[in-house]
Amino acid sequence: MEDRKRKEIEYYDEAAARQLEEEGFVPQVLGSYDKKVLDYGCGNGVHTKFLAEHAREVVGIDLSQGALAIARRNAEKEKVENKAKFLAMDCEKLEFPDNSFDVVFDGGTFSSLDFGKAIQEITRVLRPDGVLVGIETFGHNPLANAKRALNRITGKRTSWAASHIVRQKELARLRQNFERVEVFYFHLISLFAFPLLDSPGGRLMLRLLEGIDDLPLRIPFLQKYAFKIVFVCKNPWRDG
């Protein structure tokens, strides 16, 4: 196993995960309840419950055996263990046959990976009408980048992860590999509420600022500075 993969830590943002569910991206993609879903880089299974609630089967993969053990316990606690299983696997070297999944869900894993290798494997295991749904931090906001630099210096974030945040060039790569790509942008003004989330009224402030975000994030120039993005990519082109 490569050293940088061993060092990577799973990164999840609870507010963005909540938005992903509330905005209806997962129910929209999994509407038939008969989809087989790959929870790509599942970590401790934080997304597994709402995936399993809208799918026929969920397969979570991660390199961390410790995280997978927690994911299994969480699935049992949330009573979705009959629809979810977890496997130790390298996201850049998937061990599944071609055309194995209807949906691949990425909950913030790409910064830990070689993006090109990851997309090549994802498009391979997706069925021809398959969908990739991803939620990632976006790499163009100066304030967020300053915090990432500080986290790298203090050891809270690896150099690899800090330098491989999804940016516009990765979105361009997605458009080369999927017939249709939709990108949704979150957290611009509301980014300022994040340090206050544990303070009294912090979460209420986040909700209010998220509502204000709606207008500026309709402006293409400002979308680049969103902190979080969700992308929905349909119909993979394997030779893209």
UniProtKB/TrEMBL annotation:
Residues 38-133 form the Methyltransferase type domain. GO terms for biological process: methylation. It comes from the Bacteria. One of its GO terms (molecular function) is S-adenosylmethionine-dependent methyltransferase activity. Keywords: Methyltransferase, Transferase. This is Methyltransferase domain family. It comes from Candidatus Roizmanbacteria bacterium GW2011_GWC2_41_7.
